[in-house]
């Protein structure tokens, strides 16, 4: 196969990966706390020794995550919490502490504040938040302070990764910080609201159409190249 064929194949592979990412974004456009994902392409350029044009190949090497604010929806749920600004909630999982913007929490039978998966939500000191069942109305202040009937119960921690590029998505709404974390100072907690996905479905569908057209164009080129080579071989064998 000639260099143009290899370059097109590398582009097709990257487009397929991007299509999968875009499809996942669209599927999660209504998921609480979901962060839109993108694909970063790298270009490899190799010079040729015979004076021909250099060879350029693309590779979808890394994914990035949009940290933009999602829309807030009022639920009036006591344990529904949204973050306005930077930062994440920290939760305790069997794999270690993880970050999330999905704030649909509840109190379990032991009085711990937990995610829908049962992971405990952590405070500013990375300890579980305890909410006794026999307390009165629970109030979450904008700084994360938790109180009931004027009695202080704790303070939810808001964190951010010191190196956002090191963050690794583990599932739709959970991230491994990939290193150290630090307090998120430019954020506040809003009780009775949930943050939606930050995916723009219209833009993502538009991008999906662009990817599909680019992929079809590449496929057409490969089929033409295949036909050209077949005809050349046939001519040589005559």
Automatic annotation (TrEMBL):
<dbReference type="Pfam" id="PF06429">
    <property type="entry name" value="Flg_bbr_C"/>
</dbReference>
<feature type="domain" description="Flagellar basal body rod protein N-terminal">
    <location>
        <begin position="10"/>
        <end position="35"/>
    </location>
</feature>
<dbReference type="InterPro" id="IPR053967">
    <property type="entry name" value="LlgE_F_G-like_D1"/>
</dbReference>
<dbReference type="InterPro" id="IPR037925">
    <property type="entry name" value="FlgE/F/G-like"/>
</dbReference>
<feature type="domain" description="Flagellar basal-body/hook protein C-terminal">
    <location>
        <begin position="191"/>
        <end position="232"/>
    </location>
</feature>
<keyword id="KW-0282">Flagellum</keyword>
<dbReference type="InterPro" id="IPR001444">
    <property type="entry name" value="Flag_bb_rod_N"/>
</dbReference>
<dbReference type="InterPro" id="IPR020013">
    <property type="entry name" value="Flagellar_FlgE/F/G"/>
</dbReference>
<dbReference type="InterPro" id="IPR019776">
    <property type="entry name" value="Flagellar_basal_body_rod_CS"/>
</dbReference>
<keyword id="KW-0975">Bacterial flagellum</keyword>
<dbReference type="Pfam" id="PF22692">
    <property type="entry name" value="LlgE_F_G_D1"/>
</dbReference>
<comment type="similarity">
    <text>Belongs to the flagella basal body rod proteins family.</text>
</comment>
<keyword id="KW-0966">Cell projection</keyword>
<protein>
    <recommendedName>
        <fullName>Flagellar basal-body rod protein FlgF</fullName>
    </recommendedName>
</protein>
<keyword id="KW-0969">Cilium</keyword>
<comment type="subunit">
    <text>The basal body constitutes a major portion of the flagellar organelle and consists of five rings (E,L,P,S, and M) mounted on a central rod. The rod consists of about 26 subunits of FlgG in the distal portion, and FlgB, FlgC and FlgF are thought to build up the proximal portion of the rod with about 6 subunits each.</text>
</comment>
<feature type="domain" description="Flagellar hook protein FlgE/F/G-like D1">
    <location>
        <begin position="82"/>
        <end position="148"/>
    </location>
</feature>
<dbReference type="InterPro" id="IPR012836">
    <property type="entry name" value="FlgF"/>
</dbReference>
<dbReference type="InterPro" id="IPR010930">
    <property type="entry name" value="Flg_bb/hook_C_dom"/>
</dbReference>
<dbReference type="Pfam" id="PF00460">
    <property type="entry name" value="Flg_bb_rod"/>
</dbReference>
């Amino acid at each position: 196969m000639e260099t143009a064929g290899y370059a097109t194949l590398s582009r097709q592979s990257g487009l397929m990966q991007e299509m999968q990412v875009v499809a996942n974004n669209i599927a999660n456009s209504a998921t609480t706390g979901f962060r839109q994902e993108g694909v970063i392409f790298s270009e490899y350029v190799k010079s040729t020794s015979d004076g021909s044009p250099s060879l350029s190949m693309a590779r979808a090497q890394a994914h990035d995550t949009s940290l933009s604010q999602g829309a807030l929806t009022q639920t009036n749920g006591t344990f529904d919490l949204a973050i306005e600004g930077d930062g994440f909630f920290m939760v305790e999982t069997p794999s270690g502490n993880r970050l999330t913007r999905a704030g649909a929490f509840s109190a379990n039978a032991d009085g711990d504040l937990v995610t829908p998966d049962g992971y405990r939500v952590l405070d500013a000191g990375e300890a579980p938040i305890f909410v006794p069942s026999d307390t009165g109305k629970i109030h979450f202040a904008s700084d994360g302070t938790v109180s009931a009937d004027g009695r202080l119960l704790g303070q939810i921690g808001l964190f951010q990764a010191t190196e956002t590029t090191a963050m690794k998505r583990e599932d739709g709404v959970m991230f491994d910080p990939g290193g150290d974390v630090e307090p998120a100072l430019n954020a506040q907690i809003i009780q009775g609201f949930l943050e939606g996905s930050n995916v723009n479905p219209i833009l993502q569908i538009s991008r999906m159409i662009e990817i599909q057209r680019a992929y079809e164009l590449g496929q057409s080129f490969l089929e033409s190249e295949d036909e050209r080579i077949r005809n050349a071989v046939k001519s040589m064998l005559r």
